[in-house]
Amino acid sequence: MAKVTFIGVGNMGGPMAINLIKAGHEVTAVDLVEENLEKLKAEGAKVAHSAAEAMAETEVVISMLPAGQHVKAVYGKDVFPNANSGTLLIDCSTIDVDSAREVQTLATEAGFPMVDAPVSGGVGGAAAGTLTFMVGGEDTAYAAAEPFLQIMGKTLVHCGGAGNGQAAKICNNMMLGIQMISVAEAFALGEKLGLSHQKLFDVSSTASGQCWSLTTYCPVPEMVPTSPANNEYKPGFASALMLKDLRLAQAAAESAGAVTPLGEHAERLYEEFSESGGAGVDFSGIIKMLREI
Ligand code: NAD
Predict the structure, then answer these.
(1) To test ligand 1's pocket by mutation, which of 5, 6, 9, 12 has the most ligand atoms within 8 angstroms of CB?
(2) Please, where in the chain does CATH 1.10.1040.10 lie?
(3) Which of 39, 10, 38, 40 minimizes the C-alpha distance to 25?
């Protein structure tokens, strides 16, 4: 069993770290929020207020932080200068591709195997240990990370070299954001044309409009029992997080010289929805704004 330092034990990192403890690993939790540390302590973790304090005893570092600047700061200031040589580093945060590549290059140069391993599956998947991990990094680093990721997730995809996990994550979520808007627009148009939700669902769910946003996460109620539309659009996947991912996709597109006109438009629509009170609403709730435009 390994000595793991888990940095960032919030909504996602907390339950992920608990799954590692349940699997028998010795976990030290690091966070800035005392309440989050207390929760982990109650589950059997040791706690520390900075990763630097825990590095001498650590074999594996896993992080689940808000954004690229946090990842760069924590690895640059606390982990790289203090970790034992060969410590395995796994960053599960969703961050921009350029920062992920920058941090991983520094890790490799310093002799630390590292992967970027952002997730899909949300808080429910984190608690159930059923996350999907999209992983970027060298084959040897992936092989070393695999047993830890398997405890926290169900599906692992090695997407290529440094930053490719982040690339897969934002490409997928850009598809999802665009797709949800298309489904919501179609239902809003159908309403104006006198077409019932049920009839449109019956046709499109078995025809060429079929997609995840329609058949798993339908933005109108009563079509799919588990979709947030049945629960006043309580997340689920909050629009603020969708906006974060669409912004990351646009940053990546700009950096790579790619043209993503629908991704750009989806970002603008989710920005407008978030700024007009929708930030904490499930991302399928954008149908409410689209009906009013
Ligand atoms: P969160 O805000 O609940 O957790 C982040 C934690 O990091 C907080 O507890 C915060 O105190 C801690 N933190 C920040 N800076 C720190 C530092 N310097 N040292 C130690 N701890 C620090 O956010 P979350 O919902 O758990 O999301 C974490 C990451 O997971 C994000 O990158 C997010 O995009 C990604 N993600 C979230 C979801 C979701 O449904 N919530 C789904 C997929 C991916």
Answers:
(1) 12
(2) 167-292
(3) 40
Q: Using the mean position of ligand 1's atoms as its centre, give its distance from the Cα of residue 206 in Å.
A: 38
Domain 167-292 maps to which CATH number in 3.30.470.20, 3.90.1170.50, 1.10.1040.10, 3.90.1150.10?
Answer: 1.10.1040.10
CA-based nearest residue to 200, from 213, 216, 221, 186: 186
Q: Which amino acid is at 152?
A: M
Please list every protein residue whose CB sits less than 6 Å from any atom of ligand 1. Answer: 7-8, 10-13, 30-33, 36, 64-66, 70, 74, 93-94, 119, 122-123, 237, 241, 244
pLDDT in tens, 114-155: 999 999 998 889 999 999 999 999 999 999 999 999 999 999
Q: What is the pLDDT of residues 152-189, one digit of tens each?
A: 999 999 999 999 999 999 999 999 999 999 999 999 99
Considering the chain, what is the average pLDDT of its residues?
97
Q: Given the residues 169, 234, 244, 288, select the one marked as catalytic.
A: 169
What is the DSSP secondary structure assignment for residue 111, as one 8-state letter? T
Count other Cβ atoms within 10 Å, centred on residue 261: 8
Atom of ligand 1 nearest to the CA of 67: 32
| 161 upstream amide cis, omega within 30 of 0 | no
* Per-residue pLDDT, 45: 98
